[in-house]
Structure formats: C-alpha cells, structure tokens
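User: Okay, second chain of the day. Same drill as before: sequence in, structure tokens out.
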Amino acid sequence: MFQSLKKMFGQGNEEKGEKILAPAEGSVIPLSQVNDPAFSQEILGKGLAIVPSKGRIVAPADGVLTMVFETKHAVSVTTDKGAEIIIHVGLDTVRLNGEHYTSHKKQGDRVKAGDLLLEFDMEAIKGAGYEVVTPVIICNHQEFPDMVCHTDKDVKELDVVIEL
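Assistant: Same drill. Structure tokens below.
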C-alpha cells in the first residue's frame, strides 16, 4: 500500500525511472485509437501515439539510434537506461519508400534528447493518402511494469509523455 501511495504522490524509485519525452509536437492519443491493429492491439509493444502538428521527430531520450528504417518512416532508439523505443511516422507509410522523409542521423549514432532525427512533409504524406499519426512504442515494456503513458493532451517537443 505504501508503494502505491508513494507512486500516487510521485515519491520513491525515481532513480530507477526514466522519462520518455515527446519526439514530436502535437496531440497525444492512446494507442487504442490508432487505426492499425499492430499498434492499437499493442502487438509491437505498449505506448502512445502523437498526431503531429509539425513534420519533425527528435530523440525522446539520450541513447543510441539502433535502427533507421531504409524507408526513413521509422526509427528505433535504445536509451541509456535500456528502454527500446520505436517511433513510427504514419500508418502504412513504408509504402512511400522514403519519399517525403529526410533522415538527419544514421544507425549507430549516439543521440541526446532533442537531437533532430527525421523531418517529413506532412501535407505530401496526407496527399498521398496516408495518416501521419505517429506511434511511440516501448518494445521491452515488460521490463518497466510501472510504465505510465500521458495521453489526451497537446505536447511540445520534449514534454514528458511516458514514465518508466
């Protein structure tokens, strides 16, 4: 009971926790509202999604850019504390084969929270018939049983969106 009270009032275990910051500016929604079962049914992991208001993705934490998809529509960051994060810009946007995306870092690069990873042309992607909703997934969420996602709000880049 005391542990749950400590969590409720924001005390205890802060040294173990990690804050995942918003990789994009926009509106945060629960994964259950994403129009793709791989995300909405949490097949790839737990997290949230951001409906971006700008075509930029920044590093959500300090770590290593462990994957930049060839099609530039998604990146993976492993944080210094071990969280494995996938940021997937749009739904089915792999089909664009990198068109409308610009990558600013390469796989294996060390990144700091806020480093620009990707830019994308939101209007061109929407014009091609794709949604730009951007899931932010913690792939190894099992390692973070106290994970909390902050949804249903507007965020700026680097606002806290997930606490592990």
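Residues 90 and 132 are 4 Å apart (CA to CA).

User: Thanks, on to the next one.
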